[in-house]
Amino acid sequence: MNEVGDPSASAGAVARGSVARVGSATALTAICVYAVIYLAARNMPPASFSVFGVFWGALGVATGAANGLLQVTTREIRMTRYSGISADRCTHPLRVAWMIGSVAAIVIAGTSPLWSRQIFAEPRELSVWLLSAGLAGFCLQAALLGALAGANGWTQYGALMVTDAVIRLTVALAAVAMGWGLSGFLWATAAGAGAWLLLLAFSPTARAAARLLAPESTMRFLHGAAHSITAALASAILVMGFPVLLKATSDQLGTRGGVIILAVTLTRAPLLVPLSAMQGNLIAHFVDQRTERIRALLAPAAVIVGIGAVGVLAAGLIGPWLLRAGFGADYVASGPLMAWLTAAAVAIAMLSLTGAATVAAALHRAYSLGWVGATAASTLLLLLPTALETRTVIALLCGPLVGIAIHLVALAQPVTDQRRSL
């Protein structure tokens, strides 16, 4: 196995090893995610599940924004292979993550009286507390994942993903066994925020990665992180935070809203869960293939389209039956709706892919503009005066096309700043 910090490994070996290890971890993580969703839907009626789904989405928005730290840390740690920047210009990513997480948690808790009543149902105070604490923990977790990805610590990278997911599932099982109800599932959603502490306690390799420095001054690192966090926030609103977006643009969600939230979650998870887990792999791949930006997109894009085509067909044919058989007779959705939602998931997956390529190319402004543009377009489309199902499909399918176009235009430009592209 390639050791953390070893700059001599070949790109091909890194790619093969990273995909195998992170792929296995992703499969286990996806099983745990599906299990938590299944337990929540089976043990709560659709109206209560919509409350859980909104909190899951809100935490997903916050932690998704924290993934901007994963992206920028991955790139900057991996840049040490190709740059000879002196130590006096280096930054400790985990210290920056601790600072950002602490400030963000304080801001969320302090401003909660202004927005929590609109977003959260009861228990509102617990939701705010879990959101604040969860975000602080996930900022450090994201930076550690980025350091591991940048330095080829793929086994530990996968172990951290699985630990997070297993902690969530364990708490969800306890919630069912102890009859904790909605509050128990809220705890389960945020419980993985401490997984990074367990990994640091038991893994010398993870501790070594946590000490790595990025070859940037703190200000330049924060500048790149600001763009990445902005884009990751927009990404998280569109991906994990869609229930929150739906709630904000609708008067009432009720039972039908719970069904749509579950259908959206189930149709996108097979693509977006592994793609999110492999952000570190993708960024590392695009950094290694930095001179062929567009060509480097072709192979992963073909995989996404191929899997997506099979998914669209399967969702249309057996999706409605799986929804009723797995979650109960209250969860009813048509075949065309399930197929269109799966197609929308393919569009968001392609946007995630082009986004990873722009991060690797240090096109931070284009990266953030693409995701912000896609999220803004989707939000506006959710305001269309049509049925909830129709505007959901239109927003999730068409909004990402705006961001993909922005990313591709930026990636197609010739490299003009060789220092930043190395």
UniProtKB/TrEMBL annotation:
GO cellular component, one term: plasma membrane
InterPro entries (alphabetical): Poly_Biosynth_Transport
Organism of provenance: Mycobacterium bourgelatii
Locations listed in the record: Cell membrane
Keywords (A to Z) from UniProt: Cell membrane, Membrane, Transmembrane, Transmembrane helix
Name of the protein: Integral membrane protein
Protein topology in the membrane: Multi-pass membrane protein
Predominant location: membrane
Transmembrane region(s): 22-41, 47-70, 96-116, 128-150, 224-246, 297-318, 338-362, 369-388, 394-412
